[in-house]
């Protein structure tokens, strides 16, 4: 894979969504841009190690910066043109609808995206289904498998109501340019009657899906999925004003964005249907040693495409993904092997180096943890 390519592109719209995905990745590097290809969408590159085999997924994160279908379309179009990803995920927040006991803080994975604003204006608005976009079915199925077979939600902070066990539901999502604060008003009532099984409503999915469709028509092989954390729900018993709904959404926005980001990263790490590449330099490092020491310097054994900060971020992500489990030596070696020059033969040296240089410490119960020094290194962006 070339340096201007990514396995997966994650598109975010709001600042909270962008920050949540970067936090879930653990460590990223900013694309410096080029004169002929400036960094128009704050692109940052990170890596997610595959949990079931050696290799890593190279992930680029994009920031649209403003809401609406056009913003989603432009962000996806430019990200595909710049990074040529095989798959695109739109990750962020949405308003939920009361189907299947959906609650704020839950996750909805799109099965279909419906541009509900296309229709016929008679005495009342009659929505049509002409602009309905399918997503990648293999990603939907694996997302549901991830929800069933992994503890992806462990380690999350409690939501504003003090709960912390979100569920994942797959279903159709409505997309349009309007902010819908009151779903009982006549316009959206017509939309719900036309598609009564809608799970959520948001503003960028249709534009993003249209960009994917255009890319496919141009011969690009690119799949698409939308992952939304629910930030607000209708309350039929106590209808709220637009200002009250906005306040509720603001209170839940950060948590819903975090939940969606954590689930998306877990999906990639544990249940992605396509194999990861090794992203390795393909050669054994000429290792250096500290004078008077038998310890290999950490910067000497990592792939030149991956900084020490990025490597520590990957290890941190691995440790966070297994709360309550003992992270044995072989588990850490599995994470280190694909990011070390030469692979497994230098992974042990890399592990020893991280410990000797104060980046990795042992904790009670045979656990490995990153030291404050390592966490500070990761935090430098």
Write up what this structure looks like:
By secondary structure, the chain is α/β, with parallel strands linked by helices. It has eleven helices and 14 strands. The strands form three sheets. It has a five-stranded mixed β-barrel, surrounded by five helices. Helix 1 (15-25) runs parallel beside helix 6 (242-271), helix 8 crosses helix 11 and helix 9 (329-336) crosses helix 10. It is globular. Residues 280-305 and 324-328 have low confidence and may be disordered.
Helical fraction: 25-40%
Structural class by sheet pairing and helices: alpha/beta
State the end-to-end distance. 24 Å
SS field, number of helical segments: 11
Rg is 22 Å
Low-confidence stretches: 280-305, 324-328
* Estimated share of beta-strand residues: 15-25%
Helix and strand arrangement:
Layout: E1 8-12, H1 15-25, E2 29-30, E3 44-49, E4 56-63, H2 69-83, E5 87-96, E6 107-115, E7 119-121, E8 125-127, E9 132-134, H3 137-149, E10 168-175, H4 186-194, E11 200-202, H5 205-217, E12 223-232, H6 242-271, H7 298-301, H8 308-320, H9 329-336, H10 344-356, E13 360-363, E14 367-370, H11 372-379
Parallel strand pairs: 1-4, 1-5, 5-12, 6-10, 10-11
Antiparallel strand pairs: 2-3, 3-4, 5-11, 6-9, 6-12, 7-8, 13-14
Helix pairs in contact: 1-6, 2-5, 3-6, 8-11, 9-10
Characteristic terms for this protein:
two-stranded antiparallel ribbon; 11 helices; single chain; 381 residues; alpha/beta; 14 strands; globular; five-stranded mixed beta barrel; 20% strand
